[in-house]
């Protein structure tokens, strides 16, 4: 075999797999194949001046490259089993939390020291939420910020590069199981590499690729969900009493009309709204920074509604894509609308956006989200905004900005055992690409877990 272990994808799962393998067995031959660029060469062409909107690069530097889609996120590591994935169902709740804390320790030792750890434990905010039929989920939240997160990733890469072979801008088009054991991976340039064990960590953007590979290898997959919604942007002072204490508040609301669950996601105090390009579809996300000189006057967060599908329709990602494509068709990318315009049934225009008291941090196309987002989902989002207004007065102001659409694509959930190993023995699937994890902390923890399983197996293997 060319390598003992090949890792497909250099997101958090792949990075922490490689890191832990080097800690446990530094003599192992490990290679990492990544579709995107090295960290220092990842740069989105949008500069707000010459390039104001997504130009649909072949490989999105925000979504792909060393660090994965989380590289330019605001670096929130949520230490909890209440959200972020179902890793605990495979490895147990206690071990999942221990691994997340271990990941936190590694981040702190690689440049994250001094960043704040927030907690929702025993807060008056939880009581206030319950009084208004909102539910605050429990978590510890380590906020690195986009800037410190970048430094941590840079230090992790420097720690790995002398021991691990990295192949950047290298697309893996095929993974095959070899007759005598092990695996072969084939690149778009038709180069083949073999390994004893293969770890796949392709993230959410690799969902279609993962589904195809599972089909070729006869690995069962289960239908998962898609999250559809908007990104809300409002003055930071509106949510300051929440963000100052909790930073990230995961709040869930059950709508009165349809009993759908709507949740807050990825809260960015004093942050910015950004574009994302997933498989050629432009959606919206948010970032924030630890450095106060990079702070804005706004806070942004997503409001998402989860949709699960069963027979006869199982393509939840396809459903989300169709909604995002409609937004791209009408707005040429992301659409922005004032909340006041939405509830009055009129589209926002450039003049009303310019006159808004909330200055948008993303150059998006003024439009009408009701022409894009299905009524049931949009009604739930509106109901949630009014519910949040009770604990954060000002949320439902006319000038609150809504960007759409935000879509969180999830992989079909891959059938895995308690080692996160597929029925193709020696092939492990981790991170958000598995459908099991949905967060930086869970994805990283899954990488550590699998690395330990592989190191134990190789150490006990008869010579």
Structure description:
The chain is of the alpha+beta class. It contains 12 helices and 22 strands. The strands form 5 sheets. Strands 5-13-14-17-12-20-18-19 form an 8-stranded mixed β-sheet. Strand 8 (172-177) and strand 9 form a beta hairpin. 51% of the residues are buried. The model has no long low-confidence stretch (mean pLDDT 92).
List the helices and strands and how they pair.
Layout: E1 3-8, H1 12-24, E2 30-33, E3 76-79, H2 88-91, H3 93-112, E4 117-119, H4 124-131, E5 134-136, E6 140-143, H5 145-160, E7 164-167, E8 172-177, E9 183-187, E10 192-200, H6 207-217, E11 221-222, E12 225-235, H7 236-246, E13 251-254, E14 261-268, E15 272-278, E16 281-287, E17 298-308, H8 316-331, E18 335-338, H9 339-343, H10 350-354, E19 365-366, H11 375-391, E20 401-409, E21 413-414, E22 427-429, H12 440-460
Parallel strand pairs: 1-2, 1-10, 2-7, 10-22, 18-19
Antiparallel strand pairs: 3-6, 4-6, 5-13, 8-9, 9-10, 11-21, 12-17, 12-20, 13-14, 14-17, 15-16, 18-20
